[in-house]
Amino acid sequence: MRASVKLAITLLLFSATVTTAYTLSRTPSLLRAWAEDVRVLAGVELRNDGSVRLENIRDWSYTRDSVVSKRYFDATYDPQDIVDVWMYEQKLGPAGLISHTFLVFEFDASYGTRRYLGLSVETRREIGEEYSLIGGMLRSFEVTHIWATEADLVTRRVEFLDYPLARYRLVIPEEVRSRVFAKLASETADLATTPRWYNTVTNNCTSSLIRYVNESEPDAIPLHYSWVLTGTVDDYLGRLGYLDPESFLAITRDYLATNELR
């Protein structure tokens, strides 16, 4: 082997070693200059009667050009009152192999304007920081739970950022819906005191949600490449029978211009 090739390999291995050591040495934090949309953490109170008190539920409103209002509110939810769970999928990139997914829990009509409550597992970015797949593997972002109204999560992406969404109703037994909601709330409470890293491969927006489902109902969703290639998770869940095929709805700017979200 030529000396120049040996030197190149040595430098490459050294660089990889230094990068790995630096990455592993970093620790997650709650104290950074956070981007405004992920700055406020949700507060969680798990009550003895099984209900969940959530503080700082985000309810921002958007146009195509700006954030119109930045409202938060507090509310109490009983997991037993969930009547449906919806999955939204935001395809990223031309190949569609990666996507962002989030859930919306539909409560009974007595909840009024609080009826559709969303949970999005996201990177907690610092001011001026942009998400990247590589950065997500190198401990560049903490993970956070954004509890928000369905209108906030949907119109932020569709109207403000111009990302079309697909919506599906999830076919999940009633008791599992309740356990998943309680598990998500408990994890949100933990993240408020014990920060963790987001990871593109092992702890992303989709694999996190699947993990919470499997912790609520063991082995409900077997390990699959869609946990990483998240743009294929709709096909996988469909084959497992967890998606109602008749419920599919494509939500775009054009759709919202002439239709209500619900």
Keywords:
about 30% helix, alpha+beta, single chain, globular, about 260 residues, 3-stranded antiparallel β-sheet
What spatial order of strands do you see in the largest sheet?
7-6-5-4-8-9
Number of strands: 9
First-last Cα distance: 66 Å
Strand content: 25-35%
How would you summarize this macromolecular structure in one to three sentences?
The chain has 262 residues and is α+β, with helices and mostly antiparallel strands. It has helices at 3-25, 133-137, 150-160, 174-191, 205-216, 233-240, 253-258, and strands spanning 43-46, 52-62, 67-77, 82-92, 98-107, 116-124, 142-149, 165-170, 243-251.
Architecture overview:
This protein is of the alpha+beta class and 262 residues long. The chain has one domain. 32% of the residues lie in helices and 30% in strands. It contains seven helices and nine strands. The strands form two sheets. Strands 7-6-5-4-8-9 form a six-stranded antiparallel β-sheet, sandwiched between helices. Strands 1-2-3 form a three-stranded antiparallel β-sheet. Strand 2 and strand 3 form a beta hairpin. Helix 4 crosses helix 5. It starts with a helix and ends with a helix.
Set out the fold topology.
Blueprint: H1 3-25, E1 43-46, E2 52-62, E3 67-77, E4 82-92, E5 98-107, E6 116-124, H2 133-137, E7 142-149, H3 150-160, E8 165-170, H4 174-191, H5 205-216, H6 233-240, E9 243-251, H7 253-258
Antiparallel strand pairs: 1-2, 2-3, 4-5, 4-8, 5-6, 6-7, 8-9
